Amino acid sequence: MNGLPWILAAPLFGAAALFAWRNMPERLAAVIGVGSLLTAALLTAVLGVQYLSEPVPVNVSLWTWFAVDGFAPGISLYLDGLSLTMLGVITGVGALIHLYASWYMRGDPGYRRFFAYMNLFVAAMLLLVLGDNLLALFFGWEGVGLCSYLLIGFWYRDPANGHAARKAFVTTRVGDTAMAVGLFLLFRELGTLDIQPLLGEAQLRWPAGSPTLTLACLLLLGGAVGKSAQLPLQTWLPDAMAGPTPVSALIHAATMVTAGVYLIARLHPLYALSPAALAAVGWVGAITLLLAGGAALAQTDIKRILAYSTMSQIGYMFLALGAGAYSAAIFHLMTHAFFKALLFMAAGSVILALHHEQDIFRMGGLRRKLPVAFWSFLIGSAALAALPYVSAGFWSKDAILFAAWGGGHTAWWSMGVAGALLTGLYSFRLVFIVFWGPARSDARPHHHWSEQAPLLILMGLSLFGGLISVPAAAVLPASHPAHPLPVLLVQIVLGLAGIALAWRWYGRQAQQPPPLRGWRRLAHAAWGFDAVYDRLLSRPWLALARINRADIIDGAYSLLVSLTQAGHLLLIRSQTGALRRYAGGIAIGLILLLGASLWT
Amino acid sequence: MDLSIWLPVLVLIPLAGGAACWWTERLGLVWPRWIAVGSFVIDLIIMLWLWAQADLAVSVSTAAPQFFWEFQRDWIPRFGISLHLGLDGLGLLLIALTIVLGLVAVLCSWREIQQHVGFFHMNLLWNLAGVIGVFMALDLFLFFLLWEWMLVPMYFLIALWGHDSPGGRGRVYAATKFFIFTQASGLIMLAAILGLVWLNHASSGIWTFNYLDLLQAQLSAQAQWWLMLGFFIAFAVKLPALPFHPWLPDAHSQAPTAGSVDLAGVLLKTGAFGLMRFSITLFPEASAQFADTAMIIGIAGIIYGASLALSQTDIKRFVAYTSISHMGFVLLGVYAGNLVAMQGVVIQMLAHGISTGALFVLCGELYERIHTREFGAMGGLATRAPRYATALMFFGLASLGLPGMGNFIGEILILFGAFQVAPVLTVLAASGLVLGAIYSLLLIQKTLHGKPASDEALEDLVPREQGMLLVLMALLLAMGLYPQPLLDTAEPALRYLVHAYAGGLP
Inter-chain contact A541–B338, Cβ cutoff 8 Å? Predict the structure, then answer.
C-alpha cells in the first residue's frame, strides 16, 4: 500500500510544477493539471481494489511534524472505507472537473495559475481526508480554505470577487478557530490528537453525556458548520459563486463543503457519546436545509440557486449524522457530489454559451440549442429532487429520511420531507425557466470533447450512482431502519408534488422575474443573516477601528509631551533677565525653606 | 571541545566590519556593501559551525542553566563585573536569525541607500553586533551596556536615512520617540539591576553582576516584585506590549527598509529574550504572580494591534501594528510557562522575524518603485508585477498563520501550551487567528488585487530581490513543515526556563 502517499503527491507535484514555471504554455498546463488528477484517480482505483479485496485499514506515517514534550502530531495517512470513499469522490469527480475546466478556462490569462490552485486544492483536500492526526487534518482543512479563497477571488480585478473571497475565508476561519479550541481541549484531556487512539481513549475516559466531551464536540461542530456552510456560518457560500464555475463544482459543491460531514463521520464515536452534541448536529442540518431550500426559490442567478441547493443538501447530510445514520450521510455526500458537479458544470456550459449571462430570466428555451446541457440539467435535477427509482439521489435521500423516521426523530423527518417538496420545486423551477419557454437570448454553444465527456460520465453516475455500495458503510455503525410503505409514499409524493408545482407555475408561460416583495425579498436575501452580521459585527468593529486609527494610547503619550512643553513654556516666562526678580525669588525661597525647617 | 573563544568573535566581527565599512567608503560605494555582506557571511559560517558542534542532549539536571559554551574574563573585579558571555540554544537561534536578517538588511539597502553608505553600514553592523551580544551576555552590567549600545546606531539609522511622510511625522520625530521610549525603559532596568545587585550584596556580602550568581540571590517577596516589574517594563517596551507600543509604528514607518527589517525582525526579539532569560528566572515567584496580568496584556496586544492594523492607510504602519499583534502571542506564551508554549514562543519569534522582515523588504521595494506607502496608490499589483505579488501573497499568508509555514507552528504551540494553564484566556487569544486572517487578506486585497492604480509598467523583482525572498520563503516553509531541529536546539535552554518558572508557581 505504498501508493497512498503518491495519491497526495501527484496533485502536489502538479501544483509545484505549475507554480514554478511562469510562462508555461496553456496546453502543457492543461496536461499537467489534468494529468496529475488522472494519476491520482488511477492510483485511487488501484488502491480501492486492493483495499476492497482485503479491507484492513492502512496507516502510512510520513514524518513527525514536530515533537514537544509528548505532543508529537505526525503527518501520517490513514486509509479505511471512509477515507477511500472520500478519496474516490475527490480524485474521480475532481479529475472530471479538471478535464472540464481545461475546456472552460481556455484563453484565460490566468490559465496556469488556475490549475496550480486547483491542484493545490486537491492535495490539501486529500490531506484532510487522509490525515490520521487531527492537527494534520487541520493542516488540510486550512489548506482547502486557502485554495477556496484563492479561487473565489481568481478574477481579482473585480473588487467584488475579492470581497467574496475574503468573506469566505474569514467566515470559515471563525469556525476553524472554534475547531482549534476543540483540539486544544481534546489534547489537554486526552494527551493525543492521533485520531484512532483518541477515539479509543475518549470512550474509556468519558461516560456518555460528559459535559467536557459535549463541549469538545460542539467546538468541532463549529469548524464543521463553517466549512460546510451550515447555520450560523453559512453566509459565505452564495458569494463564493464569484469564482469560475469549475471551482464552484469542485470546491463549493462536491468536495470542500462536505468536509464538515466527513469530520463528524470520522469522529462519530465521540458524537455517539454525546447525545446533546449529536442533536445539535441534526438540528443544524434540519434548519439549514429548510432555510436554504426556501432561499433557493427566490434566487434569479443560476449559480446562486445551485449554491443554496448545495447548502440545503449538506443540511440533509447533517441531519443524517444527527440521526446517527453516518453511512447514509456519506452515501448522500457521494451521490450529491455526482449530481451537483454535473449541475454546476452544465450551468457553466450554459453561462459560457450565453456570454457570461447568469440570470435565469434572461435564458429560456435552451432545450434545443444546448441539448447536452439540457439533459445534464434534467438528470441532475432529477437526482437532486430524488426522482423515485431512476436517480441516484433517490436512494441516498430516502436512506436519510428513513433513518430520521426510524430513529424517532419525527420533527427532523417532517422538516426533511418539507425540504423534499422545496427541492423539487426550486430545482425544476430552474429547469423549466431555463430550458422551456421562448428563447430570450442568443446562445452560441462551442463544444469540445473535454466539456462533454465529463458531463456524460456524471450523467451516468447521477442515474446509477445509487447502486454503488459505499465502502464507508463497512466502517461506520450500521443502521437498518424500517422502510414503512406509507412513509415512503409521503416522501415520494412530496418530491413529485414539488416538480408538479414547478411545472404549474413556471412550466408553460413565459416568465418575468417576480418582483422582490414580501417573503421573496426576505428569501432572496437568504433571510437576512448577512445584514444582521454586517450590522452587528463587521460595521461596529470597523467603525471602532476607524475611530481609533490614530491610536488613542499614542494620544496619551502625546498629551504627556504637550504637558511637558506647556510646563516648559511656563517656566521660560520666569527667565526674564531682570536681576531684581531673581533676587526676590531667592529671598522668598530662603524664607520658605527656613520657615519649613523651623516648623518641624 | 572548548569553543568559547568564538563567542566574542561573533560580536567583534560585525564591530570590526562596521569600522571597515566607514573607512572604505572613500574607496567606493560598493566596498561598504560587500564588507557588510562579508561580515555577516563569516558570522553565519561560524554560527553554523558552532551549531553543528553544540551538544544538544538535554542534561539530567535542569536546576541550573545550561550553556554550550561560556566565555569569561575579568573586567571590573571590584564590583564583580566580567566580560561574561554564554551561548545556549535560545541565544543561538536568535543570533542565527539576527545574522540572516542582517544579510537581508544589507541586500535590501543595495539600491535604496545612496548617501553616506559607509556610515550607514557601520550603524547597521554595530547595531546588530549589540544585538548579538545581548543574546549572549551573562553579566548584567555587560547586558545593560549592550542593551544601550543597540539604541544609538538605530537612532541614527532612522534619523539620517529615514523617510519623512508628507504632512505626517518626520523621521527625526520617530527616531527621538524611539530613543526616549527605550532610553527611559532602559533607565528603569538599570535601577532594577542595581537594586538587585545591592540587595544581593546586602544578603550575601558579595558584589557581583554575574547572572549565574544572581540567580541564587535571596530576595524578599516585595523586593522581587518591584525588581521584576522594573525588568518587565524595560522588556515590554521593547517587545512592545500594550501600552508601551506607540514608538513602534512611528519608528517602523519612518525608518529605512533595513531599519524596519532590523527593528521588527531582531530588536523586538531582544524584549522577548530578556523576559525569558532574566525576568522569569531571576524572579520566578513574582513572575508567576504576575503571569495572569502579563497574559492579559498579551491578549490585549493581539486584539488591539490587529484592529488598529485594519484602519491603517500606510502599509508600513499596517505591518507595524500586525507586529504588535504577533508579539502579544509571544507574551502569552512566555507567561504560560510550559515547554510547549515556550517552544512556540521561540518558533513564533523566528517565524515572525522572517515573515515580517520580508514584508518590510517588500514595502521598501514597493516604495522604491511607486514612491508612496499609501494603500490608495496601490491595487492591482498582481497584474503589474506578478513576481512581487507572489512574494507579498506568500508572506501575507504566513503572517495569518497558515499551516505549512513557521508562524502556524509558533502560534499553535503557544495556544496549545497556554490552554493547559489558562483556557479562558487562550480562547480569547485564539480570536487573533480570525483577526489575523482579516488583516492579512485586507493587505493582499489593497495592494495586489482590484484594478491597477495605473497602467504604467512596474519593474518586477530583480534577481537580487528574488533570491533574497526565495531564501526567506524556503526558511519559513522548512520551519513550518519540519521545525524539529529548531525545537531540539532550544530544548535544553527552555527546559531550564520551565523548571525555574515552575519553581515560582504556587
Answer: no
> A66 and B403: CB-CB below 8 Å?
no
Task: Give the integer Cα–Cα distance in Å for B75 and B139.
Answer: 11
Q: Which of A313, A470, A295 is CA-nearest to residue A400?
A: A313
Is-contact A185 B419, C-beta < 8 A?
yes
Alpha helices in A54-104 (DSSP H): 81-88, 94-104
Q: Does B297 touch chain A (CB under 8 A)?
A: no
Q: A356: phi > 0 → left, psi -120 to 50 → alpha, else beta; which? A: left
* Alpha carbon distance A275, A539 (integer Å): 37
Phi, psi of B49 (to 5 degrees): -65, -45
Dist CA B199 CA B192 (whole Å): 10
SS (H, E, C) A426-489: HHHHHHHHHHCCCCCCCCCCCCCHHHHHHHHHHHHHHHHHHHCCCHHHHCCCCCCCCCCHHHHH
pTM: 0.91
- Please name the member of A142, A156, A545 whose beta carbon is closest to the beta carbon of B449: A156
Write the single-letter amino acid at A292.
Answer: A
Q: Do B426 and A153 touch (CB under 8 A)?
A: no
Query: Is the CB of A533 inside 8 Å of chain B's CB atoms?
Result: no
Q: Looking at the complex, does the CB of residue B169 fall below 8 Å from at least one CB of chain A?
A: no
- Residue A58 β-bridge partners: A79
Neighbours of A559 (CB within 10 A): 10
Q: Give which of B247, B252, B484, B499 to mutate to test A binding, by max A Cβ within 10 Å.
A: B484
| Facing A142 at nearest CB: one of B403, B423, B451 | B403
Q: What's the 3-state SS for A296-314? A: HHCCCEHHHHHHHHHHHHH
Q: Which of B311, B338, B449 sits opposite A546 (nearest CB)?
A: B311
Q: Which of A63, A188, A541 sits opposite B419 (nearest CB)?
A: A188
**Which DSSP helix (H) or strand (E) runs through A142?**
helix A134-152
Measured N-to-C along each axis, helices B386-399 and B406-421 cross at an angle, to the nearest 10 degrees, of 10
Enumerate the residues of chain B whose CB falls inside 8 A of the CB of residue A166.
438, 441-442, 445
Integer angstrom CA distances of residue B450 from A111, A112, A158, B161, B400: 19, 20, 5, 33, 21
d(CA B215, CA A303) in angstroms, rounded, equals 68
Residues 25-84 of B with CB under 8 A from A: none
- B91, B136 contact by CB (below 8 A): yes
Query: Cβ separation of A551 and B442 shorter than 8 Å?
Result: no
* Interface contact A68-B340, CB threshold 8 A: yes
Per-residue pLDDT of chain A (600 residues; tens, 9 = 90+): 578 889 999 999 999 999 888 888 888 999 999 999 999 999 999 988 888 888 888 888 888 999 998 888 989 999 888 999 999 999 999 999 999 999 998 888 889 999 999 999 999 999 999 999 999 999 999 999 999 999 998 998 888 888 899 999 999 999 999 999 999 999 998 888 899 899 888 888 888 888 899 999 999 999 999 999 998 898 999 999 988 999 999 988 888 999 999 999 999 999 988 889 999 999 999 999 999 998 998 888 899 999 999 999 999 999 999 988 898 899 999 999 999 999 999 999 888 888 888 888 888 788 888 888 899 999 999 998 888 888 888 888 888 888 888 888 888 889 998 999 999 889 998 888 888 877 777 777 777 888 888 999 999 888 888 777 778 777 778 777 777 888 888 888 888 888 888 888 887 765 677 777 778 788 888 888 888 888 888 888 888 888 887 788 888 888 988 999 999 998 888 888 888 888 998 999 999 999 998 887
Contact yes or no for B416 and A187 at CB 8 A: yes
Nearest to B24 by CA among B130, B109, B120: B120
Taking CB atoms and an 8 Å limit, are A557 and B246 in contact across chains? yes
User: How many contacts, defined by CB atoms under 8 Å, are there between A and B?
Assistant: 125
